[in-house]
Amino acid sequence: MKRQNNIPTIQDVAQRAQVSAATVSRVLSTPERVLPATRQRVADAVKATGFTINVAARSLRMQRARTILVVVPGIGNAYYSTILDAVVNEATRRGYGVLVNSRLDDDPATWLADYFHSNRTDGLLIFDGFLDTRRLHSIAGDDPLLPLVAAYDELPDPQLNSVLTDNLQAAERAVAHLVSLGHRRIGHICGQSRNASPNERLVGFRKAMFDHRLEVRPEWILPGEYTMRSGVAAGHAFAALADRPTAVFAGNDEMAIGFLSAIRQNGLDCPRDVSVIGFDDIDVAQNYFPALTTMRQPREAIGRIAAETLINILEDRVVKAPIHVVLTSELIVRDSTAPLTRSAVG
Amino acid sequence: MKRQNNIPTIQDVAQRAQVSAATVSRVLSTPERVLPATRQRVADAVKATGFTINVAARSLRMQRARTILVVVPGIGNAYYSTILDAVVNEATRRGYGVLVNSRLDDDPATWLADYFHSNRTDGLLIFDGFLDTRRLHSIAGDDPLLPLVAAYDELPDPQLNSVLTDNLQAAERAVAHLVSLGHRRIGHICGQSRNASPNERLVGFRKAMFDHRLEVRPEWILPGEYTMRSGVAAGHAFAALADRPTAVFAGNDEMAIGFLSAIRQNGLDCPRDVSVIGFDDIDVAQNYFPALTTMRQPREAIGRIAAETLINILEDRVVKAPIHVVLTSELIVRDSTAPLTRSAVG
DNA sequence: GGGGCACCTGCAATCGATTGCAATGAAGTG
DNA sequence: CACTTCATTGCAATCGATTGCAGGTGCCCC
Q1: How far is A179 from chain B (nearest CA, A)?
Q2: Tally of CB atoms within 10 A around A23
Q3: Which of A19, B48, B175, B295 is disulfide-compatible with B208, CB 3.0–4.6 A?
Q4: Is A143–B314 a contact, with Cβ atoms under 8 angstroms apart?
Q5: Of A124, A127, A125, A105, whose CA–CA distance to A114 is shortest?
Q6: Cβ–Cβ of B84/A76 closer than 8 Å?
Q7: Lowest mean per-residue pLDDT among A126-140, A156-170, B129-143
Q8: Chain A contact probe: residue of B1, B299, B304 with most A CBs at under 10 A
Q9: Could you read off the pLDDT of B99-125 as tens digits, one per residue?
Q10: Hey, what's the torsion of the CAs at A49, A53, A56, A62, to 10 degrees?
């Protein structure tokens, strides 16, 4: 498929406005340096020709692509899709393009470096906690301030700019909610640890349990992978327990939903037999049955602020130290948690 | 944030391999035109320098960006996220970057044309049926074969390349499933019509009802917008009906879920009081309660094939007429549909 | 009136790759 | 041996924008 060849260039505009290409360029980038009359002539010519800048030429000359790369761990995920949406909106507003990628298979250090070297992207937005952040440092050379913002649910390398939520405290508040309903026997469905750092939601769970002087039983910590499927597995494991907790804190909503689906198959009812609190507040949480109590993550804000931060860094708004933004999760009480009743104590 | 300036260029490689830049370029694009010995020297130099091509320079020279633009109607959507995932995988495999956008607010003809003119993208993948396709023609000039593939759930302009599923027949099969369970009083939650073309799922519904000699009652056609929220509204409207259908075919799973959530609040039970069949088979469908009967859309295939088709067109695999790929939806029977019982007849 | 200055604009180099054309050399043919 | 042919490689123009430098103009002030 050949491109049409009548796309107007800056030369065409210059010719029509009776000025040099340099002047057109200046009108576009620093209009105050051009005489108003000339400026107007050029503006008219731009409109008349329908000129749009050739980004390849500009990128080549300026060594900047005005594009950011977003790395998500599988875009097909209810949680990240909203975030991505916010990123696209913010980036577009600032005149940046958004490239997406999710190649988790290959060695990330290689292809990420390629994106930089190839002048395809100026900065990176990482929503994927499974990337080895220690290797990210090598990507932008020795610059201690990478044009990179990490935004995922584990505390990343403190050297990296980050936008996250108060996972640890949120986990504590989730447990506190269950405790306030009278629950003492509390389990947890935990996601994998990422980046060799401890899973913050699990840590928060343990801390809250300790603070409330409650016992953490190893068999009540059910391993998961942040997927519905793993939630289902956890639900079956739960149903098979001889001695079950009366409440469960799930590391995210997807696992909570899988869990609820599985225990129902095993004849258990939520919240009668077990209260369940999730994490994230994905769209379906409020329309699930039972409607899911959860710690809402401000997903739109995460995406928007992450994009904003990255672009600020790229545009040299002076940054001296890594930026860390922490957003607050909000407890949303719905129907999947209920006061402890005699029957549940079983 | 300044870029590091020691990124190796093709000149650096050439110098190291003792050849000209032209030869390096040939080794990279048409190796068979270079003497094996030279080819090897160059390959070694590429490896040694860590050369990656500067895409801005290549795009400028070749007038091709090796990038495609994906337009989705709100990325924050369970349905499209899987498709986008497949697109990214396929495009990456073929060496293409993927830009995303979802600006539905502005006049699409304007900013889409900008993407083309600015040499930012070579082709378009449209998953957004709300774009006015008549205006898309103007984008790539007079070329009757736009570098554009439309993939959304309404039959688009036959002049456009498209990848879709058999919506109409699938809707008929959905109704047939309900009929086979004994239902005669069947309602429909329909999404908006797009592109001024009739909503295919609604048309399929009507056709199936006609073929089965069943009455289509206007008050049983509940308007929706393909969102959970609109499904909730439909559910409340349904509950308020004096004379209710015994089964409902929802235009997509999100509306079905909203619907189920709402009727439950109104004391109605699915499938006891009403059978519900959805459309799409989004991830949560199987873990919803009741598990949702639905027409599965091959989302991964839609995304992959759409990307494949677009890139084939871009790379001049001869295309003489618009390409139309139609994929088949599959009936997935779960728990939200059940045989008609006396109680439901009410 | 001349020197200085500020402002506006144009010239031309530059970013890094691709490719038509030409040069080179080796091989083949009469 | 001379001439053609072909394979291999290099030269240099080119894609379209940006920007340092310098030229030109007008204005002010002494």
Answers
A1: 27
A2: 21
A3: B175
A4: no
A5: A124
A6: yes
A7: B129-143
A8: B1
A9: 998 766 666 677 778 888 899 999 989
A10: 140
